[in-house]
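Handoff note, outgoing to incoming analyst
You'll be picking up this chain. Sequence as last confirmed:
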Amino acid sequence: MRRFIVVLTFPLMMFAQMISIDDFKTDIFSRVDKNPKEVSLSVIIEGRYVEDESYKITDALNVVIGSFYVEDLLTSKGKEALKKLLIDYTAKKYGIDIDEVYIQKLMIDQNPSTNDIISALKKEGCCK
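Most recent structure output, in case you need it:
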């Protein structure tokens, strides 16, 4: 039985490729304060002919991630939605067949702006 399964899946594995997009950075708006936050993302993508079409996948990732708010990407539901939307968008727009998307790293830069620091100091009564 195992041989049968291996024989059936071997041709599919021959066409599967993998690309890694490391430290993809973009700005995404926050739902709370309506300001953009920098997001850093590293993903591994498996599919057919993805190495040849990596520039199209990077473009699709940029388009898809821009449709989310920062707060949405902090939840597991939001991350799964990002994966599904990327797979669907690349299939529809470019005809690229992505099998799996693995998020290796998703970091949101929470560095406060100068105005945020001044506002916090004013609330504490340190500045007038």
